[in-house]
Design brief:
Elements: E1 6-11, E2 16-23, E3 27-35, H1 41-45, E4 53-57, E5 61-62, E6 81-83, E7 86-87, H2 100-106, E8 110-113, H3 117-127, E9 130-135, H4 141-148, H5 160-163, E10 169-170, E11 181-187, H6 192-200, E12 203-209, H7 214-220, E13 224-227, H8 238-247, E14 253-256, H9 258-266, E15 271-287, E16 293-304, E17 313-319, E18 325-330, E19 335-338, H10 353-366
Parallel strand pairs: 3-4, 4-6, 5-7, 6-8, 11-12, 11-13, 13-14, 14-19
Antiparallel strand pairs: 1-2, 1-9, 2-8, 3-9, 10-12, 15-16, 15-17, 17-18, 18-19
Helix pairs in contact: 7-8, 8-9
Length: 367
């Protein structure tokens, strides 16, 4: 049976929604955002890019196919809280080993259900992403408002340091490493499927903490450097920007999401916060070179300012919903990046060619 305990979601501008406790009974805060994916909730929950965010799912039924041990993008749930319309308490999938409510409860993640997620989504679209608090232990609005005032806003937050790996390690997915390309992956909040796809392209991947120095990377002497996805404000990751700036022109570089933004900042461009971000697995992106439209998986609240690109950087992809930056490349050094998630998980596989493009960039650089 669903938890019948009452719960409240209060937004920073005073709008509140009353529903039922979902997952762990408690209290949590974070930036409230929404994801338009109809599936992939387990990958969304475990994506480190959602650190300090309360995610609202726009699909009405969540949990239909349960939760399993394989479809995770990190070693734990990363979201600050979870908001849904209705939980499917009895999942139907041979791979499932527990319900989503049990999964959230086991990892002490506070959620709320039986709320109008369409109204929440429209409110965020109209007024922008904002902080919120979910509570199933304190239902006093004035008390919750006081707590919410103490929560820092997303701009200026360096969250990469909270989700990065503590020490360097080698990725090896159940088989001996005997690949052709030596990759240094800088972990700002890396997703597991990125590592799987790099390996499938013939890469030996060593993952470094976000604080790694350019000297450490150059001493490792990789064939290429990968800049991962991650949460927070890219401008706050000053140490990462410094490291990438010092690597420019010395090693081929490929960045995704936060890695894309950090590369752009290292090149001298600027970033800005989007009104409500792009989150889902159905976002159209135009490849400027080919003219083709790719349906992409996305999760970001900041974007690169296309008008700030220096003369040696050109746009390669653009978002067809709002014309924001989705990809760049350097014209004089081997470096490129995309804002969206070509590794999908969840989402379509339209953009996986970018991993092969990274391989070709490394091979041409070594020729």
């Amino acid at each position: 049976m669903a938890n019948q305990k009452s719960a409240i979601l209060l937004l920073a501008d005073g709008r509140s929604f009353t529903g039922r406790a979902f997952g762990f009974v408690g209290e949590t805060t974070g930036e409230v955002c929404f994801n338009t994916g109809m599936t992939g909730y387990q990958e969304i929950l475990t994506d480190p890019s959602y650190c300090k965010q309360i995610v609202t799912m726009t699909a009405p039924h969540i949990g239909n196919y349960g939760v399993n041990a394989d479809d995770v993008e990190s070693d734990r749930i990363q979201v600050a809280g979870f908001v849904i319309k209705e939980e499917t308490e009895i999942p139907s999938n041979w791979r499932s080993n527990q319900s989503i409510g049990q999964y959230l409860n086991d990892q002490k993640i506070v959620g709320i259900q039986q709320v109008d997620t369409r109204a929440i989504t429209r409110h965020i679209r109209d007024h922008g992403s904002m902080n919120g608090i979910i509570s199933s232990v304190d239902l006093d609005i004035d008390s919750l408002k006081e707590k919410l005032l103490k929560v820092p806003s997303m701009p200026g937050l360096d969250l990469a340091k909270e989700v990065t790996c503590p020490t360097q390690y080698v990725w090896n997915d159940k088989k001996p490493s005997s690949n052709d390309h030596k990759i240094a992956a800088i972990d700002y909040g890396i997703k597991t499927n990125i590592l799987r796809l790099l390996e499938s392209q013939g890469c030996d991947v060593t993952i470094f903490p976000a604080s790694v120095s350019s000297k450490e990377i150059l001493n490792f002497n990789p064939d290429g450097v990968f800049l991962s996805n991650g949460p927070g404000d890219p401008e706050a990751v000053t140490y990462g920007i410094k490291t990438v700036k010092e690597l420019l022109g010395k090693k081929p570089i490929f960045g995704i999401c936060l890695g894309h933004q950090i590369l752009a900042l290292a090149l001298g461009a600027k970033t800005f916060k989007l009104k409500f971000g792009h989150r889902g697995c159905n976002h159209p992106v135009k490849n400027i070179d080919s003219g083709k439209v790719e349906i992409t998986s996305q999760n970001h609240g900041f974007a690169v300012d296309l008008d700030s690109l220096p003369s040696n950087v050109e746009a390669t992809h653009v978002n067809l919903n709002d014309d924001t930056s989705e990809g760049i490349r350097c014209t004089d050094i081997p470096a490129f990046s995309v804002q969206y998630h070509p590794e999908s998980s969840p989402g379509p596989h339209d953009s996986r060619y970018l991993f092969q493009q990274f391989i070709e960039l490394m091979e041409s650089n070594s020729a």
